[in-house]
Design a protein that fits this description.
This protein is an all-alpha fold and 292 residues long. 72% of the residues lie in helices and 0% in strands. Residues 1-7 have low confidence and may be disordered. Residues 83-292 form the ABC transmembrane type-1 domain.
Length: 292
């Protein structure tokens, strides 16, 4: 049976317009709270993107619009080398970040004492300024006075031109990225491991499962959501790599050949064709935005 609204103290049904007024107020309040973040999103995301889209057609000299920016970008060897380097960063850094993070999480999970210390110690590089870390590693990579080459000389091995050699520059930067990001993977893997019920392991041990069987039959399948999350965030981070490249190989003293083998698409965007490459990076993502 439908309920009726009654006016206070009268016992008679409330008029229909009062119910509509109350519902209208709730609706207006809801739309107001939804509009505020929407306006904020339009101001910091949509409007700059539309402006960048318009700028990508501007002529470099003089008024008017042109497609020469896109033509120059797609015919530039520097652009395609930057794209290839970016893909290499993804292929190199993401698997190692996840692998090292998982190993650290498994090892720290077996520690009974100082677990918080180890967790903080390995996570600290991730929350440290990327600029500061890049310059510390740049000093360590120094050809003459770097601690790495000093160590190699102590072993009677030849010193390496870590940031000057085109064959080593990209690998050297990748090592820094892996070292800095592995702590984040470790922390997320530890959360994933702690969410796995211990009863699964106890039941498997009763059936005679070894540690290797426990890992592949229980740990690995139940960590799949965590692995997917870290893979996605790792790929996004690798595609946006810029700070380490700019600070470690972007100085005037570095050889151009070494810089070209290390710079990424983000470096190209920030230094040469910002608006044009921004639109090219945005277009492949539009289908996923529309889908979700």
């Amino acid at each position: 049976m439908a309920r009726k609204m009654y006016e206070a103290g009268t016992g008679s049904p409330a008029p229909a317009y009062s119910r509509l007024t109350l519902e209208n107020k709730k609706t207006r309040t809801a739309y107001t709270f939804l509009a505020l973040p929407l306006l904020f999103f339009l101001g910091i995301r949509i409007a700059p993107t539309l402006y960048a889209f318009a700028m990508s057609f501007f002529k470099q000299s003089g008024p008017g619009y042109t497609l020469s920016n896109y033509e120059e970008m797609f015919t530039s060897q520097v652009f395609w080398r930057a794209i290839a380097n970016t893909l290499l960063y993804v292929v190199i850094t993401v698997p190692f970040q996840l692998g090292i993070g998982l190993v650290l999480a498994l090892l720290i999970g077996r520690v009974n004492r100082f677990k918080g210390f180890y967790r903080t110690f390995y996570f600290l590089p991730y929350i440290t300024s990327a600029v500061a870390i890049s310059w510390v590693w740049r000093l360590m990579y120094d050809q003459d006075n770097g601690i790495i080459n000093i160590f190699l000389k102590g072993l009677h091995l030849p010193a390496q031109k870590w940031l000057h050699d085109p064959q080593l520059a990209l690998i050297s930067v990748s090592i820094v990225i892996i070292w800095q990001a592995s702590g984040f993977s470790m922390l997320i893997f530890m959360a994933g491991l702690e969410s796995i019920s211990k009863s699964y392991y106890e039941a498997a041990r009763i059936d005679g499962a070894s540690r290797w069987n426990l890992f592949w039959a229980i740990t690995w399948p139940l960590l799949n959501p965590t692995i997917v999350f870290l893979s996605v965030t790792g790929v996004i981070g690798a595609l946006q790599t810029f700070t380490q490249i700019a600070n470690m190989t972007g100085a005037a003293g570095e050889k151009p050949a070494a810089r070209s083998t290390a710079r990424s698409a983000s470096w190209y965007m920030y230094t040469i064709k910002a608006s044009t490459i921004l639109i090219c990076r945005l277009l492949p993502r539009l289908p996923s935005f529309c889908f979700y």
